[in-house]
Design goal:
This protein is of the alpha+beta class. It has 16 helices and 33 strands. Strand 23 and strand 24 form a beta hairpin. Helix 1 packs across helix 3. The longest helix has 32 residues. It is elongated, with a radius of gyration of 57 Å.
Length: 784
């Protein structure tokens, strides 16, 4: 039974295909013969069209229209059947025409419901194709009788009912770049091969600008190059463009966060999908593989295939220094550099050079007066009428000989270029925050002097500060309040002041002109003040008076009441005074290049003066005592000499690499030294390391006037004529293998530059991380 039904179904489908092809042929013949249809026929076709449309709607909503695979396959099958059975269809033409409607009605119930749906959708598709005037696969027009009747009835403008989805076919140029027709009056060719001329575009730049200003829809108007027309975008199209620019989906109704549909169930099935038994070949060895293996065995037996040779284990040696040509003598030379090639001749060496290369008379005279090394060209460019008129080169042999000498005597060496990361060259320094405490802000300004303040010094307790100025006064200040406690007038501009570092003695040394005054300011502890006076008055002169370079005088009367205790009169002007750490010895500097009397050391308790140097070693700038050992530092213009006072000999001579030393300070540990110079440099010396500077700092823009170390904290400061004080962290380690750490931490500004002078002196507070600076603007400033 099933075979019979299958055969009947096959016959039914074949009959249907034949009926369809016959219908189409009849319709085409009618097209050629009858332009106008009867009314009954059109009504009938309209009814059929309505039925088909309802079926197609159903197919759209059931989702069958989108899945076009089944329909396309059926169409292809129908096409094949039609081609095979063309002859049968021609024979059965009359029968089908007679029984057309009867065959359709009888065939419909025999097919299942779904097949009816598919045929309905197929017919609607054919209708759509007919509407657009498309051509099907065989080249015949797929127009149904219905739409032919409608087209002949209307015969209006074919573009009147154009839809926006269909392509605008006013321009049939095709997908061709419009730039090709930029310089031509036409824009392409139509189907007849005639030119499609460009529409006359009367708009110029001015009209375009006016349109831009006046037309409110200008922003949504787009120029179409293919049709040369302006298209106004609708609101929906503008919204679509905005959505695409924002990276959103084109469809408004599209939900990108739709919940996923689980197509496969997560329940595990008990039974397999297929119950097919395993193949027999999975249990039997493969015959093809057996054949291949037998062929390989035969080839090995015959010797056609040889096994791999075992690797040789003998060591191999390479010539590391061999270059491109190992046989050449210079090929083995490591640093061989090939001879440089000669420069190719230019236009100026031509026998007929361009006129701009020929020298004028002035240039020729200048060339002849120049030295051979300074000349741009080793010859004079000359012009000749032809190549035959060119004489022999007079310097030919000389030039060849010089070239040979260059090749023979040139010291050639290949230098290996090192690629260094620039960041690796910068030292990795700690952050200033990690190096606190150090002075950061200006806390107090001590005002009172009327001229530039050359020197300042703090007392050992840190309570008082003394300053000397060019206004012939010495002022004593209270550090914490900034109040001036005492003012003493002296007989000249004060060059230097120094407070005795011994806390048991209250003495201040002041130098002006050729006098050094020892003052007792009577500030602080009364016991210390009285003991200082007793120390000075208890002096007993020796029996034999020796001649000294300095005359000592004890102050009495009104001068004693002012605070004067001792007056030392020098033969020349004194520039600097400095105390020894124990407070009994005092040194004064008298810079004079003509005599050996430049440095004197005074002992206050015995009122004795001695000249430590017999010879003059240069213009002395400043001196200093070693804080711990019996060493004496003398700085001349370019060198710092260190003398051992006990052995009375020169220990070291430091080369500062500066043009003119201005100031000097010694680290409390005694193994490091800093020198400031007038050429904007600060040199740090490590005395255990070398006689040359360990670090050269160039932080200031102008001449350095003063440098100082802190007694307790790892800090040092420098003041310069640019009005700034730079505080640096200078940590010295006990480990001799570790170098000192020098980090600039703060630039302190506040002093105004007057008469090209800025900061003249700096000194640290003895106990706190504070720094005092005196300037040419008559002020003293405290930075804390």
């Amino acid at each position: 039974m099933p075979t019979v039904t299958l055969e009947s179904q096959k016959n039914g489908t074949m009959n249907k295909a034949k009926v369809k092809s016959a219908k189409k042929r009849v319709a085409e013949e009618d097209n050629d013969q009858l332009p106008i249809f009867d009314k009954d026929v059109t009504e009938k076709a309209g009814e059929e069209g309505d039925e088909d449309l309802s079926d197609s709607e159903e197919s759209v909503f059931s989702g069958l229209e989108d899945s076009g695979s089944d329909i396309d396959e059926e169409e292809e099958d129908d096409g094949d059947d039609e081609e095979e059975d063309e002859d049968d269809a021609a024979l059965m033409l009359d029968e089908n025409l007679k029984n057309n409607s009867g065959a359709e009605t009888s065939a419909e119930p025999a097919e299942p419901k779904q097949q009816g749906k598919k045929t309905a959708s197929k017919e609607t598709r054919k209708m759509k194709k007919g509407k657009g005037g498309a051509i099907d696969g065989r080249g015949e027009k797929g127009l149904t009788t219905t739409f032919q009747g409608l087209a002949t009835a209307q015969q209006g403008d074919e573009y009147e009912h154009d839809t926006s989805d269909e392509e605008d076919i006013r321009n049939t140029v095709g997908n061709v770049p419009m730039e090709w027709y930029q310089d031509y009056p036409h824009i392409g060719y139509n189907l007849d091969g005639k030119k499609i001329f460009k529409p006359i575009r009367s708009k110029d730049e001015l009209d375009e600008f006016l349109d831009k200003m006046e037309n409110p829809d200008y922003w949504r108007t787009v120029h179409d190059k293919t049709t040369a027309s302006d298209i106004r975008l609708t609101d929906e199209q503008v919204d679509l463009v905005h959505r695409l620019q924002k990276g959103q989906f084109g469809d408004v109704n599209f939900n990108e966060y739709e919940s996923s549909v689980d197509f496969f169930t997560n329940e595990v099935m008990i039974h397999p999908v297929t119950n097919r038994p395993q193949d027999k070949r999975s249990f039997i060895p493969s015959l093809i593989e057996k054949e291949k293996v037998s062929k390989l065995v035969h080839a090995i037996k015959m010797g056609w295939i040889k096994p791999r040779k075992p690797k040789e284990r003998t060591p191999q040696y390479y010539d590391l220094w061999a270059k491109e040509d190992p046989n050449a003598i210079l090929g083995r030379h490591k640093m061989h550099v090939p001879a440089p090639k000669m420069r190719l001749p230019g236009h100026e060496e031509s026998y007929n050079p361009p006129p701009e290369y020929l020298l004028t008379e002035e240039e020729r005279l200048a060339w002849e007066q120049q030295d051979a090394e300074d000349r741009k060209l080793p010859f004079l460019p000359q012009k000749h009428s032809c190549l035959r008129a060119v004489p022999a080169f007079s310097r030919f042999i000389h030039e060849r000989f010089e070239r040979c000498l260059d090749l023979y005597l040139c010291p050639r060496q290949r230098k290996m270029r090192v690629n260094v990361n620039p960041e690796d060259l910068i030292p990795k320094l700690p952050k200033p925050k990690d190096l606190q405490p150090f002075p950061t802000t200006m806390s107090l300004v001590y005002r009172g002097h009327t001229s530039l303040v050359r020197s300042i010094s703090a007392c050992p307790t840190g309570q008082w500060l003394v300053s000397g100025s060019d206004d012939f006064t010495v002022r004593f200040w209270e550090v914490n309040t900034g109040r001036c406690m005492k003012t003493l007038e002296v007989g000249g501009a004060v060059k230097s002041v120094a407070w005795n570092p011994n806390p048991a003695v209250c003495l201040v040394a002041v130098c002006f002109e050729s006098t050094v005054l020892l003052l007792n300011p009577s500030l602080g502890d009364r016991l210390v003040v009285s003991s200082t006076d007793q120390l000075i008055t208890s002096y007993e002169p020796p029996e034999e008076d020796k001649e000294q370079a300095v005359t000592w005088a004890l102050s009495e009367g009104p001068e004693h009441n002012k605070g004067h205790r001792l007056t030392l009169t020098h033969p020349k002007a004194v520039k600097q005074v400095v105390w020894h750490g124990k407070g009994d010895y005092l040194s004064s500097v008298m810079p004079d290049n003509t005599s050996n009397l430049q440095v004197l050391i005074h002992q206050v308790s015995k009122r004795r003066t001695q000249n430590p140097f017999r010879k003059n070693k240069g213009l002395v700038q400043c001196v200093s005592f070693h804080p711990l050992r019996p060493y004496f530092f003398v700085a001349t213009q370019r060198y710092v000499r260190i003398y051992n006072l006990i052995k009375q000999e020169l220990t070291k001579k430091l080369m500062t690499n500066c043009k003119w030393i201005s100031s000097m300070a010694i680290h409390p540990g005694g193994d490091n030294l800093i020198c400031g110079s007038y050429d904007c440099r600060l040199a740090w010396f490590d005395l255990d390391l070398s006689t040359k500077p360990y670090k050269m700092l160039r932080h200031h823009k102008k001449a350095l006037r003063g440098v100082a170390y802190h007694r307790n904290y790892p800090l040092f400061a420098s003041g310069a004529d640019d009005g700034s004080v730079i505080v640096c962290h200078g940590m010295v380690y006990n480990d001799l293998l570790q170098n000192p750490l020098i980090v600039p931490v703060k630039v302190l500004k506040g002093h105004q530059i007057t008469q090209d002078l800025g900061v003249l002196d700096v000194t640290f507070h003895p106990t706190q991380p504070w720094v005092f600076s005196s300037g040419a603007d008559t002020t003293i400033r405290l930075f804390t």
